[in-house]
Inverse folding.
């Protein structure tokens, strides 16, 4: 009987050892497109920023590494006799490489105090696009205010005070309260440059974040090139001006079309689509119609030429310091200090698969982390040193999460302790991944703990029985 107990203990020990082997070190960080999970190989990327001003205009210059020039966006490809969309956003990189590189900057004047301490985290609300539990576009479109009034069709960034509580994206405060908040400056100015939709028209997209991510008043710099009734493009390239009616798919995906070629569909270089033309398999027409933005939407210009050279993008944006639109733009003044946070998309990524920064101060004639150099004349000479910023992959970390019991630092946020005092960028990147895989990590920890307990119990029983057997002998 004692021998049977020893054998049983050994089996228990072996089982615990096997379970430990199976549950420990196998890894839980795995891409899962069904859950909107795709983790980049690099967790941090450097960005160089310079600022300058002449009293009338403000300039920001950005430089960052990118393995290739991502100048293409989604397209319409002639496939088996029909026009189909290629290049739609997916978790992580788009397989065909059809998603434009971007740089964006959120800017504040102190009216959103949390932003100066926590940066873009404050705009990442409940169940945003790209999160595992994202809200459906239909729910947003059906929302009486966000969808039917504002025209939003996906869950976008928003600021905390625009909602009745942190944990409900749909609980929008009354419209009169929204107007009061915005009138008091409670919004973030968003400068958004896109390699495909900005450079060909010499303008970045002027937007802002408040109750959602919205465009400034006026006409957008792009429209959608699709006739839903006829299931075909609305426009095609004008052969008299471009020498062609469409691009070739193979040339596009093999990057045989460069920055100096016509890789875009601009209104002044296009004509009405001709369905009777001799379309060939692989003919490709851009899905975006580019045009000059109008009104406040077109306030941000591209200074010089935004270029990708030898593995780096260099982009310079220009805007009037005072646009006279204080409910859409942050008015910049000589002697002012502002807060800015930056982001880039590269390697054919869209949505939340970007690299972001902590907040930095920008000073116009004042000491700051990014000092804006004063100059006279039409354009700055950029003699001053650039500020190098570390961008990081943020994962699925929302403002409600950071203020919940699931986050050990929630108490520090409640005390208004800036994130920079407690975390570095690489720590935030790793925390972002931990947050994405929190359930899987917890399960593996429980399995490993249980296996370890079984291992210890089995080992203890076996040793105890062997000692008793020896004493009995």
């Amino acid at each position: 009987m004692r021998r049977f107990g020893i054998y049983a203990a050994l089996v228990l020990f072996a089982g615990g050892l096997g379970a430990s082997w199976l549950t420990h070190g196998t890894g839980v960080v795995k891409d899962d497109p069904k859950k909107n999970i795709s983790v980049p190989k690099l967790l941090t990327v450097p960005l160089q920023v310079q600022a300058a001003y002449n009293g009338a205009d403000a300039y920001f210059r950005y430089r960052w590494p990118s393995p290739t020039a991502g100048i293409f966006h989604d397209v319409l490809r002639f496939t088996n006799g029909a026009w189909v969309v290629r290049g739609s956003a997916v978790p992580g990189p788009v397989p065909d490489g059809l998603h434009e590189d971007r740089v964006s900057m959120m800017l504040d004047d102190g009216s959103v105090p949390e932003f100066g301490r926590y940066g873009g985290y404050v705009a990442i609300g409940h169940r945003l696009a790209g999160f595992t539990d994202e809200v459906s576009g239909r729910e947003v479109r059906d929302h009486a205010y966000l969808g039917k009034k504002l025209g939003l069709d996906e869950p976008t960034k928003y600021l905390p005070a625009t909602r009745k509580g942190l944990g409900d994206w749909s609980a929008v405060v009354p419209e009169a309260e929204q107007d009061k908040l915005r009138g008091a400056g409670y919004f973030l100015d968003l400068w958004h440059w896109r390699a495909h939709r900005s450079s060909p028209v010499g303008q970045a997209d002027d937007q802002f974040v408040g109750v959602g991510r919205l465009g400034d008043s006026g006409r957008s710099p792009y429209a959608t090139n699709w006739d839903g009734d006829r299931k075909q493009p609305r426009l095609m390239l004008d052969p008299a001006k471009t020498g062609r009616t469409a691009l070739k798919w193979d040339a596009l995906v093999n990057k045989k079309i460069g920055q100096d070629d016509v890789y875009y569909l601009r209104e002044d270089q296009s004509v009405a689509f001709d369905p009777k033309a001799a379309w060939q398999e692989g003919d490709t027409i851009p899905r975006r119609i580019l045009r000059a933005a109008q009104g406040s939407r077109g306030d941000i210009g591209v200074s010089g030429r935004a270029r990708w050279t030898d593995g780096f993008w260099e982009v310079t944006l220009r805007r009037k310091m005072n646009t006279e639109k204080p409910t859409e733009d942050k008015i910049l003044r000589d002697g002012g200090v502002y807060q800015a946070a930056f982001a880039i998309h590269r390697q054919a990524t869209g949505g939340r698969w970007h690299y972001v920064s902590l907040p930095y101060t920008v000073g116009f004639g004042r000491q700051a982390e990014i000092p804006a150099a004063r100059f006279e004349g039409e354009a700055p000479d950029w003699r001053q040193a650039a500020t190098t910023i570390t961008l990081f992959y943020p994962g699925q970390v929302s403002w409600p999460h950071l203020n919940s019991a699931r986050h050990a630092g929630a108490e520090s946020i409640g005390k208004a302790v800036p994130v920079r005092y407690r975390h570095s960028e690489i720590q935030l990147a790793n925390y972002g991944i931990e947050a994405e895989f929190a359930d899987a990590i917890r399960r593996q920890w429980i399995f490993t703990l249980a296996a370890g307990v079984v291992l210890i119990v089995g080992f203890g029983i076996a040793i105890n029985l062997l000692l008793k057997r020896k004493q009995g002998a």
In short: The CA atoms of residues 12 and 458 lie 5 Å apart. Residues 44-66+101-221+292-395 form a domain with the Immunoglobulin-like fold (CATH 2.60.40). The radius of gyration is 27 Å. The chain has a mean pLDDT of 91.
